[in-house]
């Protein structure tokens, strides 16, 4: 008998890691299951994760709660996969979990969390979250062994399973020899993502007479911030070096990855960034900030350079190294080509096994 599996979480737009990985999970094969989806995204092209929530936005979240109740009554799923982050939205998601429990829907939490700096990650709050996760969820997916080591102090370790963010390598397959000597940045155009550091690094290199092209996929958090950034770039005469492409999805995004040699990822904090894994699948060289989450993904390989977090001069120096050492950059691309550990097959098998386990329990 075919079972029904519901995915609950955001889908693009906006361009973001959790939405992208939710979409990727929904693209996998689940033998014996019919898949349906409840999208928690507001569908805006941009999202400010750090803006204080308005009464209107709280009302919208309340409507999502009502809509989920109707959705569950109509669809009657046999198992649920819910994507939860450690930001303020976790309050809504805990109510979602309670509803799933009341409806007797076995539930797998995909906990896409950093380990510090967000709403739910203060120790007292995390203890409450851990108790509620244990009460409402059958299994809890964490992003890495490092996340498991950290969160097992607060969350029932017996329910935890590590499933790495993954990519479909076939979407990024390319010929390294056809790549252009360009840089690529992907993400929100914010201070937290290191984008202002990147602008300063480009200005440093421009003043040193370097010529290159940096393509930017993404938007600022608001229209006002977007205008501010565009004015900064214009006033510094960096339009010759920086190409703002806006949001790109699916094959439009993949094509840019496949043709580019070097990803720049100067973020100040992350959880387990899927964009690094996309760059690896696209056989790219990588410049990444030296934060723990990035180093945890990149490991001890030879396909990347690290720049000091929030240090524009050091970031410029790493970019300069790439520009002056094209043979070494090609070797870094070739090193990425050897890495196959983030393929979709591993994640697919793990999630299928988990669903079968809890549905048949």
What would your notes on this structure say?
This protein is α/β, with parallel strands linked by helices. The chain is built from 13 helices and twelve strands. Helix 6 links the parallel strand 7 and strand 8 (about 215). Helix 2 (about 55-75) packs parallel to helix 3 (about 90-100), helix 3 packs parallel to helix 4 (about 125-135) and helix 6 (about 195-205) packs across helix 11 (about 310-325). It is globular.
- The chain-level structural class is alpha/beta
Q: What's the count of strands?
A: 12
Main sheet makeup: 6 strands, parallel
> Assembly type of the shown chains?
single chain
Overall geometric form: globular
Keywords:
6-stranded parallel sheet; 361 residues; 44% helix; alpha/beta
Task: Spell out the blueprint of helices and strands.
Layout: E1 3-9, H1 17-26, E2 33-39, H2 55-75, E3 79-85, H3 90-102, E4 107-112, H4 123-136, E5 139-142, H5 145-151, E6 160-162, E7 180-186, H6 195-207, E8 214-217, H7 223-235, E9 242-246, H8 250-259, E10 260-265, H9 274-281, E11 285-289, H10 292-298, E12 304-307, H11 312-324, H12 326-337, H13 344-360
Parallel strand pairs: 1-2, 1-3, 3-4, 4-5, 5-6, 7-8, 7-10, 8-9, 10-11, 11-12
Helix pairs in contact: 2-3, 3-4, 6-11
